[in-house]
Amino acid sequence: MVERSMFTMLGLPTLLLLLGAVNGAIPPRAHWKPTWPTYKVPVIVPQLTINLDKPQFDAEAKLEVVSPCGPSCHKRSPLPTYEEVKDYLSYETLYSNGSRTETEVGIYIITGSNSGSQSRSRTKRQIYGYDTRFNIFGKDFLLNYPFSTSVKLSTGCTGTLVAEKHVLTAAHCIHDGKSYVKGAKKLRVGFLRPKLKDGSKGANVSSSPEPERMKFQWIRVKRTHVPKGWLKGNANDIGMDYDYALLELKKPHKRKFMKIGVSPSARQLPGGRIHFSGYDNDRPGNLVYRFCDIRDETYDLLYQQCDAQPGASGSGVYVRMWKRQHHKWERKIIGIFSGHQWVDTNGSPQDFNVAVRITPLKYAQICYWITGNYQECREG
Ligand SMILES: *[C@@H]1O[C@H](CO)[C@@H](O)[C@H](O)[C@H]1NC(C)=O
Ligand SMILES: *[C@@H]1O[C@H](CO)[C@@H](O)[C@H](O)[C@H]1NC(C)=O
């Protein structure tokens, strides 16, 4: 499968380069257009898969993750070793028949690659932004890109379509770090569709002035991948970094999806701003869209203060930037909205909403889960 001679084991110096790569990528300063940087992505491939006992499914789905570790705490934590990273990126797969496997991964880089400089400057943003949410009404919006990529999980969270059959969401929607949540056994993904009265079969639908009635149509999940970094950490300082999961549907959803991409640093994003849409608990049945400024970032997390309620967790955080190779604007998912955190900063509690960044390593892992082919995952 993998030709070893092509690869080198990822040693610590390379790992440091890789970890620096997100902030070290050459910023597209010279261009007025915010442009997607290109990243060298490592190769992550399965090495060994073993069967595990059937899980219990006894955890309650908690839609909020509480972590006492804020930005400064995360920045103080030491860089993981190669063995640790390899362990965090190993994963569990849950099948719809209840069986479960654990897969160890190997991490490689193509020899001769050069990952740029190591600067890890951390800009503190002084400008605080909007904190506004918009309900998205009307078929014209709800059924169209990008809002149509937001789906609801039967456990209460939000997910985003990232491939023909794949949905990206937060790990805590599936697993509480110790056990699978009850609803994970028969996990389904809901797609908003217009509610048609008998006879009206979709004729002349766009002219109604009122918000149209929509309902969810559900598709079963065939398998679910959760990184071991989440299973081990359970929302402690490390676990938070791995709060993501990928779901594979039993059949294709046939909608347009949004690709994933490596998260640029906040200062490279247009206006330092991110966007996401989710099914917030306080507005049942509504898809809620918001955008907001990034307040702080670590290698693995983005901190922002935009308004969000628990049901929004698992939403894909996206930005729209110029893709030079394709000569067009592209939206990509660069993170997964994890949830709300109270963080003690200098004695005064401050609340943040946290999103998990898609780093080059996570990109390689999620992309492999989607495609099963590392060669399709070389460019983030
Ligand atoms: C469950 O499904 C997986 C994947 O289709 C299969 O490999 C495994 O053997 C099945 N397990 C049982 C107990 O049927
Ligand atoms: C659709 O609705 C509009 C406005 O109510 C009306 O003018 C038009 O004739 C309708 N078209 C059809 C095909 O029913």
From TrEMBL:
GO molecular function: peptidase activity
Domain of life the protein comes from: Eukaryota
Keyword terms: Glycoprotein, Hydrolase, Protease, Secreted, Serine protease, Signal
Occurrences of domain Peptidase S1 (ranges): 145-286
Gene Ontology annotations of biological process type: proteolysis
Primary site of residence: secreted
Stored InterPro entries: Glutamyl_endopeptidase, Peptidase_S1_PA, Peptidase_S1_PA_chymotrypsin, Trypsin_dom, TRYPSIN_HIS
Pfam families: Trypsin
Cellular compartment(s): Secreted
Stretch forming the signal peptide: 1-24
Family recorded in the similarity comment: Belongs to the peptidase S1 family. Snake venom subfamily.
Name this polypeptide is given: Serine protease 23
Organism, scientific name: Pogona vitticeps
Source taxonomy: Eukaryota, Metazoa, Chordata, Craniata, Vertebrata
Gene responsible for this protein: PRSS23
